[in-house]
Structure formats: C-alpha cells, structure tokens
Design brief:
mainly beta, 4-stranded antiparallel sheet, 3% helix, 124 residues
Length: 124
C-alpha cells in the first residue's frame, strides 16, 4: 500500500523558514510528478510546487522566489523549502503524486497519491 507522510510543519513568524518533507513508502515515485498543494482557512485548495520525473519544476506565482521543491529519489523523499514566509502562507500542506506532467499537475482535482497534511502557521 502506498503511503505519503508529511512532516516539518509548525508555527513561525513572518520572515522565517520551514522545510517540509514527504516520505513515500510502498512504491518508488521516481517516475511520477510529485508536488505540494495547500489549503488555507476559508480558501480553495491550490497547487504550490511540483517537480517532474526529469527534475523540471513549476511553482505558483505566489511562492516563486521563496519556495524550493527538491526530491531525493534514493530515499523516496520530497522536500519543500519555504523561506521568507508570510501570513498568507498559513495553510495545511499536502504532498501528492501523479503520473501527469508538471504542467498539468496543479489542475488535478484528484491525484493518485495524497498525504494526510501538515499544518503551517505564519504569524505577523
């Protein structure tokens, strides 16, 4: 059974940093696009960052220049480095995986694999 487990969430002040991790177990995700979605209080879910099989990346405009997505295929771990956090980044962050291309990832309503989420709270 495939499982995605996110860790690394927490509470920080604006301007701070956090690194989220997503451990995939039960399968290798090296051939999948892997990424992060988030859903803030009273907001719709939105795609944040995605990395493709070839290492290509795509980011939401709101996080470009502040967030960096990487992966370690040998350990089956996906990372999201979040710097210069702002209160608007407050949300539950979900790890996800799907065989579609990075260009189509954010448009997905459902993904093959989905984590349980980790909370990020940024105070002003």
């Amino acid at each position: 059974q495939v499982k995605l487990t996110e860790t690394g969430g927490g509470s920080v002040q604006a301007g701070g940093s956090l690194r989220l991790s997503c451990q995939a177990s039960g399968t290798s995700y090296s051939t999948y696009s892997m990424g992060w979605f988030r859903q803030g209080p009273g907001k719709l879910r939105e795609g944040v960052a995605v990395i493709g099989e070839d290492g290509s990346t795509n980011y939401a405009e709101s996080v470009k220049g502040r967030f960096t997505i990487t992966k370690d295929n040998t350990k089956n771990i996906l990372y999201l480095q979040m710097d210069n956090l702002i209160p608007e980044d407050t949300a539950t962050y979900f790890c996800a995986g799907d065989p579609v291309s990075p260009a189509a990832f954010f448009k997905l309503r459902r993904t093959h694999y989905w984590g349980q989420g980790t909370q990020v709270t940024v105070s002003s």
